[in-house]
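Lecture 7 notes: from sequence to structure.
We start with the chain below.
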Amino acid sequence: MEDLFAHSAIQPSDPEKRVLELSKQLEHHNTLYYQDAEPEISDAEYDALMNELKKLEAAHPSLAKTDSPTQRVGGAPLKDFQQIKHLVPMLSIEDIHELKNEELEALQDPNASKMQNLRDWYQRLAKNLGVDHVALTVEPKIDGVAVSAVYRDGVLDYAVTRGDGTTGDDISQNIRTIKSIPLRLPGAAPALFEVRGEVFMPNEAFAKLNEQRDEAGEPAFVNPRNATAGTLKQLDSKLVAARPLDCIFHSYGQVDDAPYTSTSEFQQTLRDYQLKSTPWFEEVDNVDDLLAAIAKLDEDRHHFAYATDGAVIKVSKLSTHQQLGATTKHPKWACAYKFLPEQKETLLRDITIQVGRTGVLTPVAELEPIFVSGTTVSRATLHNQDEIDRKDVRIGDTVIIEKAGEIIPAVVKVITAKRPAQSQPFNLYQYVNGQCPSCSGPIEQEEGFVAWRCLNFACPAQAVTRIKHFASRKALDIDGLGTAVAEKLVETQKVRTTLDLFDLEPDSLADLLLDPAQLEAGTSKPRRLGEKKAALITDSLNDSKQSPLSRWIFAMGIPQIGESAAREIARLHRSLGEVASSSILKDLAELPDFEELTVSKRKKENHPRLAQYQIESELGPVAAQHIVTFFNSLAGQHVLDKLEALGINPDSDNYDPEKSAAQSLDSPIAGKTFVITGTLTRPRPEFKQLIEAAGGKVSGSISKNTDFLLAGEKAGSKRSKAESLGVSILSEDELIAMTA
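Predicted structure tokens for the same chain:
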């Protein structure tokens, strides 16, 4: 068994000890980076530690534990989510709403405020307890998705959504991808510790994600919560890992021997166990202090890194929680005070069009400046033509503005009663006369996409961002070629496309004058780039000609082709020429979805390499369509011709499909789906690697598409379901015999 996973790397004398050391180091650095925001080491140093651990676990599968830092990305995509019953009901919290102006006026009480409903709630609470004052805690209500995480003996056992409050979806694989959530609690944690919190997407990450979706011509998410909910519903945890999710814990469910007696002590317990908690937390003991804390939170929350829509108020003493109890819907010892979203009315003066790196044309509302949620807003993205049509947005309209997730200015709606008589519906294509506003090149709307895209590979609006991407560390890693140099190269027309960089002469590059604003503070005159920096760039460009195929594919900036997709494409092809004429990619691009690769016998029979490809690849039909379209386009042909003229022919450094295909196609389990259950003599990851090495796949749940169930002792319900569906049940010895 050990020989199957052996590799050539030099191993330490005590692999088990080294795995333990690396795991502790990585969890320590995860805590510093994702919870404390105080990293001690660089990304490169962190990656080196992680890669060392991955290699050790691959060489010694018995050392790969479920709480290893390498398990942050789950295995094969799930068929569906399993249901888990909550250990104790996961109730919602009673909502107390901030009064609207018209509601406040209707009270006809000069002493009433927008928080009158909260004052009334406090008075009812005090009356029920027979006291004048109640000690409470106040914390932000995060606008996320509620989850419960169950730790047993300090190790994360599973995570589940709220669902109907009694039963929720098992999202353990997806929760494990969130690096701020520890897989093992430090110290002497309770034997059973159920902690509850909110999964969310930070504001800046949400903004970046929507920019990427706009660039790809995909519909934008409405708000961070919408993006988070959609992400957690993904059946493939690898897709979830690519999204920037985070989690803050705020309460608990079932706990053995709880080490706290109040909500404030519970906050300290969260910190002790390295579970992320809210940094904003207030304790109050009377109604006036409560209202003051709420007002302070309403001001402070505009500077938080995540979206909030209110405050959560809890009775401080846990013994009082038991005294008050709960209704069938919510506890009586807490409430959620909901802020009204701040909306402002302003004039939409114009609609302009921005051209992004991939050529996508994005309409932007130019607004009469207005102060909203802590900042002055003068622009708001309209995303695409479909969004404009849906809201019927026109130039000259009076519109309502709010910040989606407290950060992204958005046009909520149009006040049609104030629409000028001469207004006309906005049509992006007609507005730009069917031409890119940057280069006057042709634009088109791809079938199935909402975005319009410039087709001109030499478009200057795309050139600067394309050059920056082309030269980035993860692409061709060209030293010295940053934003200032890229902008000047395009502005002076020394470079029109990324490949023009290879035509630059050192002397001409040295004479490039950089703007003062792009240099260090205090510089008032343009400055030559200089011979030294010019030589650094040209030498780095020459070195990049030898970069492997995967880096070149990623550097081209083809939509939907990221680092992992580029590496997978390079694994399947020897050279760039093979990629450009690839029958594998063409066949894959024809499929409506990735799942069809599993059931399409015709394609497997005609293309044995494609059969192996579907077993291991994460690349789907959409990405394949983009790369096929690119190399069939004028831009793609330009790249091939230019590279040939430059004498550049990138080769793959990880090409191995024949070797993998020979191993898998001869195996009796190639393409078969397995489920593992019960108590086994070896760790499950060891059997999972054995199955995948022989061309099989491992799923988390039994279905009609399951081929084999590997069953150990105490197999339980999965064995019963396998028997009812006629799924073949294997012992450990039978599996090992099949893979021998």
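Points to note: Residues 197 and 381 are 31 Å apart (CA to CA). The two ends are 10 Å apart (CA to CA).
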